[in-house]
Amino acid sequence: MSRPTDVADRVGIGVVGCGTISRTYLENLPRIPGFDVVACGDLDVARARAAADAAGVRHAGGPEDVIGRPDVDIVVNLTVPAAHAEVGAAALRAGHHVYGEKPLARSRAEADLLIAAAEAAGRRIGSAPDTFLGAGIQTALRLIRGGTIGRPVSAIACFQDPGPDRWHPAPEFLFAAGAGALLDMGPYYLTALTVLLGPVRRVAAMERDGPAERVVVSGPRAGHRFAVEVPTHTSAVLELASGAVATTVFSFDSPRKRHGFLEIGGTEATLRLPDPNRFDGPLRLCPAGTDEWRDVPTAGARLGRGLGVAELAEAIAANRPHRANAQLAAHVLDVAAAVAESGARHRFVDVESDPPAQEPLDPAWAPGEDGTAAG
Ligand SMILES: NC(=O)c1ccc[n+]([C@@H]2O[C@H](COP(=O)([O-])OP(=O)(O)OC[C@H]3O[C@@H](n4cnc5c(N)ncnc54)[C@H](O)[C@@H]3O)[C@@H](O)[C@H]2O)c1
Questions:
Q1: What's the pLDDT tens digit per position in 74-88?
Q2: Disordered: where is this region (predicted)?
């Protein structure tokens, strides 16, 4: 099979998994200069066909039809977490690079199989979330590295919601292994904290089970009941490599919606970040000992989901490491495993993995906007 070995001027993209989030990717990916979305695949071929037709993508079929294509360089894996490792490993074995939605896999063991498949094939794995590549978190990273808040001391990260069974048409996977609030929403906050303050070193946590059964609220399957397989409320205290201590709450059992709260306190100032599930938003700074918040202008990329694929393609072409990488995503899985162990055993649990520190992106990096080239 002859196929490009390096991603360069033309980047062939194949999308596997054409459900809810694929619409956003299929809107954004074609905007990235050089990207050519050639095929959509899903176990439900009619769904792949509908997604392809809506987005003007030439080919549609099963996952094997995308993975078997020689004109695909990067497979974008938007399947449910239970299929992330299987679909990703098949794509890697076929010689493609892979960028997958979060979490990297359901467990560290599954993630390690994926990482081994990438090493054996000499191909790369990228993983969501890529929101940290956006203007909001990158501006915060530049401020923290520049010393604006002084020495980081504390962080508070909070996602509270009654649960995605209220809006997702097929929410079962969000209450199964590889999800729950901790692994569905936690990756946005845990990835941001890791990039901004260094890896998590130690965890103390408590988890709580919510209702054993939930009901699909919206869409054609409304009224369908399903079993909940994972804890749905997590409180965890995290010690970060910088020495800062983060207090976190991730919940699908909250009557109150509080999305996107992320605040970092330093010896000189407090920084309130935009929602880490978004690529930009209000960034505010308050000097120590005052209540005088001021808005900080953000600079950087705002395209949305798909930025991680753009950065991966640039990194492959430049032969340098990419940012939304498997080490970072596997670290989030390690934190989740430590949370579960700490909750079960009522003790502190160390986290060993140590993803490399990341340099802030150039504020001018904005693929897919104003004709700026992706690389
Ligand atoms: N829905 C969102 O708002 C959202 C936002 C950010 C990230 N995500 C992530 O994106 C991923 C997908 O979420 P979703 O909400 O789009 O789910 P979804 O259930 O709406 O869609 C998943 C699709 O994957 C297909 N699929 C499952 N197994 C497959 C396999 N082995 N091969 C090929 N296709 C397969 C399903 O048929 C379905 O069409 C998840 O990892 C989720 O965490 C979702």
A1: 999 999 999 999 999
A2: 350-375
Across 35-52, b (16+ Cβ under 10 Å) vs e yields: bbbbbbbbeebebbbebb
Instruction: Find all residues with CB under 8 Å of 250, minimum gap 6, and list them.
Output: 159, 180, 181, 182, 185, 186, 189, 233, 234, 236
Q: What is the mean pLDDT of the chain?
A: 95
Query: Where residue 341 sits, what CATH number does that domain have?
Result: 3.30.360.10
Residues 82 and 51 in one domain: yes
My answer on whether 202 and 168 are in the same domain is yes
83 touches ligand 1 (CB under 6 Å): yes
How many domains are there within the chain?
Answer: 2
- What is residue 140's predicted lDDT score, i.e. its pLDDT? 98
Atom of ligand 1 lying closest to residue 63 CA? 33
Q: State in Å: Cα 70 to ligand 1 middle.
A: 24
In this structure, is residue 17 part of a structural domain?
yes
Which two tokens mark 153? Answer: 């001391």
